[in-house]
Amino acid sequence: MKHIFQQGKDSSKPTLLILHGTGGNELDLLPLAGRIDEAASVLSVRGNVLESGMPRFFKRLAEDVFDEEDLIFRTKELNEFLDEAAEQYGFDRNNVIAIGYSNGANIAASLLFHYQNALKGAILHHPMVPRRGIELPDLSGKSVFIAAGTNDPICAPEETEELQRLLENANAKVEVHWENRGHQLTAEEVEAAGEWYSLDIN
After folding, report:
1. Which of 20, 51, 63, 132 could form a disulfide with 24 if both were Cys (CB 3.0 to 4.6 A apart)?
2. Segment 20-67, tens digit of pLDDT
3. pLDDT over 70 for what percent of the chain?
4. Pick the catalytic residue: 102, 114, 125, 143?
5. Residues 6 or more apart from 79 whose CB is under 8 A from it?
6. Is residue 102 annotated as a catalytic residue, yes or no?
7. Rg of the Cα atoms in the chain
8. Catalytic residue among 37, 110, 143, 152
9. Handedness of CA 77, 35, 22, 105 (dihedral sign)
């Protein structure tokens, strides 16, 4: 997978896995990593799917309808890529924190839904529920921060609450931060994510 790796100043810190939104690329959210932990290593990945020329992490059948078969395949592909990248760059595979926005947050949530040891935790900006009707792995010891907008036209508050419930039922520790905004990524929610990270992860 096309990506950028930046070696951090402190190898004991988590490696931050950066996952862009639809139409973004591996450069878009790099500034976020510095806002969360400027000493951590960063692995920023570009999605392998194109939709009307826009990079994504998995296909969809319509605006809010995921291609479940492709989601499962791409989640496996990303998980295997993380295994390879950890070997290539020498970071701790068991100490990876995902930071995803929109489509990137959805694939990060899908990693949690499908693979018990894919992530140590995640910062999910405006995620949706990746799949329904499946049993999640035991996520004991995992911490998840969700940033959501009360007026988000793509991800309704009920969707956020459902995702929170599903993760908590799988024993993850979840914090939800609400902004009275839409689907955009705000400076306020990034700041809140940084505070959460310094208390829960770092």
Report:
1. 20
2. 999 999 999 999 999 999 999 999 999 999 999 999 999 999 877 899
3. 100
4. 102
5. 111, 114, 115, 118
6. yes
7. 15
8. 152
9. positive
Contact yes or no for 48/77 (Cβ under 8 A): yes
* Distance (Å, whole) CA 88 – CA 90: 6
Burial 49-78 (b: 16+ CB within 10 A, else e): beeeeebbbbbbeeeeebebebbbebbebb
Q: What percent of the chain has pLDDT over 90?
A: 97
Collect all residues with Cβ–Cβ distance below 8 Å to 132 and sequence separation of at least 6: none
pLDDT of residue 201: 84
- Residue 156 phi, psi dihedral angles, 5° rounding: -65, 155
Q: How confident is the model at residue 119 (pLDDT cuts 50, 70, 90)?
A: very high
